[in-house]
Fold:
Amino acid sequence: MTSNVLIAIKNLVKNPVLSICAHYSGRNRANAVGDALEEYIKDLFADTIFCDDEYKKISIYNEIFSYTGNQNNPPDIMLKNGDAIEVKKVQGNAKSLALNSSYPKDKLYSDSTMITAHCRKCETWSVKDIIYVVGNTDDNCLKELWFVYGDCYSADKKIYERIKNTIIAGLHSITDIELTETNELGKIKRVDPLGITDLRVRGMWSIFHPQKVFEYLPKKNIASKFKFYCIMKREKYESFTKQDKQNLLNLVDNKTFFINDLKIRNPNNPAELLDVKFLEFYYG
Structure:
């Protein structure tokens, strides 16, 4: 059993769940809207939205996912032999996403120092496409959902690592300090004469919400309680099986669900345009 983003979108269009807190709190699986959003995303990919048999659901998860992570290290989910998924919840109409110590990613690399050993060893892999899943919620319900592939959203890792490495080199250039090994930008021990003060230097990355980044794209903007958007390179869309693409095309009704061919600015060079598939779904 395998899964991919087209299967997840098919399940979303067929079975949209807006009251995610109510849906998952009744199953004792989530106590907050952020937890409920992540559970919903897993269920979209696993096609287990209405599965009440916990043992069966765990078994399906085991077949679909190679890794379901923790809150401190990306990604949140990895599909076996498939994409990585990073889930972000924002309240209301927030204009940016907090990425904390992890800079934006166009791809996920197995040699990244920001992932756990369990993530690195959960399957044989070196690089994965990554989907940023961004959900706008209130305290109980899902209002808007974006699936955006990292290579449509984020610049090449060298852009971010140049800044990070320059800061680290600057710390190392300071004389008469004791630096200790860390995954953060730096940690200085015994800063003061008594040796009782330490300093942690952390990166706190953030990125504009996809809604703001892609506000120039033409949208249907149909009045509805829930809006869904997905952006992926056209070559990525074409890489999926003919059957998965046809299953999705069968749901296109030109009233609530649309699949469009558009162009977006290249994150590495805005003067260039990338061919993408832009999917829209409106409900309620």
